[in-house]
Design goal:
Layout lengths: L2 H20 L6 H7 L2 E5 L14 H10 L2 E8 L5 E3 L6 H4 L10 H4 L14 H8 L5 E5 L5 H12 L6 E5 L2 H10 L4 E6 L10 H8 L4 H4 L3 E5 L5 H8 L3 E7 L10 E4 L15
Parallel strand pairs: 1-2, 1-9, 2-4, 4-5, 5-6, 6-7, 7-8, 8-9
Antiparallel strand pairs: 2-3
Helix pairs in contact: 3-6
């Protein structure tokens, strides 16, 4: 074997390995155009000072009225209902020392959200309230019942007419959608490795640097607003849509394709050529 072949092997094998690990899924331009250049209200258009808590029906109705996209979170209850709620437990939002996965939906209805008249809503009720006003980003929370949650989310979405995509911190959720609902746009939620406090260092590095893209092949990367590591920047250059979270003041997140925001009222859209 001559020297040229050895050079090609030395260069080519690592390059192929890099592509296998980090390559995102192909996202057609017309699909990206439907989501990009938009502001997404984080957990709905909430304002607790006005009695509108996060992830409440009223928050999503207000976002719909303004024409914002929305980002929301879904969990499974003990009795198998899909509910819209962020945390794993009820302490912060309801002042109760219980895990949401251990409660039935009738039990959850006993607990006010942040001391308001609002209650934790069913995913189906949020879909009906928002009614396809703009694109929706659905975060699938990870847990022992991942396949059941993914399947039930898809069942709820069967008759929904609006644009939607899913995201998760757990690459196994993306793998489920890649296998079972490949047409649904999927995104990998990420942040820098130091934020994964309870993970082994190697896994934290992989999660924070898109090093597990080969599991679920995301169409977009939803990255915390902070300096992105070089591998993440490379994944975006390879075609992944760049989504940022969570912008809390005007201009924060500029340069991203989509901005998830809260605590201020931006325009509903922005020029994708100037991004932000």
């Amino acid at each position: 074997m001559n020297t040229l072949w050895w050079i090609l092997i030395i260069i080519g094998v690592p390059a192929v390995g890099f592509l296998f690990v980090f390559l995102p899924a192909d996202m057609p331009h017309y699909v990206k155009k439907a989501y990009a250049g938009r502001f997404y209200a984080h957990r709905g258009l909430h304002n607790l000072n006005e009695g509108v808590p996060e992830n409440s029906l009223t928050a999503f109705k207000k976002a719909a009225e303004k024409g914002y996209g929305v980002e929301l979170d879904v969990h499974l209850t003990a009795d198998g209902k899909v509910v819209v709620f962020h945390d794993d437990d009820l302490h912060r939002a309801c002042g109760v020392e219980r895990k949401i996965a251990d409660c039935t939906y009738p039990e959850l209805l006993e607990y006010p959200l942040f001391g308001t008249n609002e209650r934790i809503p069913l995913f189906s009720d949020v879909l009906a309230a928002y009614n396809g006003a703009a694109p929706m980003i659905i975060e699938i929370k990870s847990g022992k019942r991942n396949p059941e949650l993914c399947q039930k989310v898809c069942t709820e979405l069967e008759n929904y007419k609006g644009r939607l995509c899913i995201e998760s911190f757990d690459p196994r959720v993306l793998r489920w959608f890649k296998k079972n609902r490949p047409r649904i746009v999927r995104g990998q939620l990420c942040q820098r490795a130091e934020h994964y406090k309870n993970q082994p260092k190697a896994l934290a590095w992989a999660l924070g640097n898109c090093g597990l893209n080969f599991i679920g092949r995301p169409h977009f990367i939803a990255y915390r607003i902070e300096e992105k590591p070089a591998p993440v920047r490379m994944v975006i250059r390879m075609g992944a849509m760049d989504v940022c979270w969570t912008s809390r003041e005007q201009g924060e997140g500029a340069g991203s394709d989509c901005v998830i925001f809260e605590n201020y009222l931006p325009d509903t859209r922005f020029d994708i050529n100037r991004k932000g």
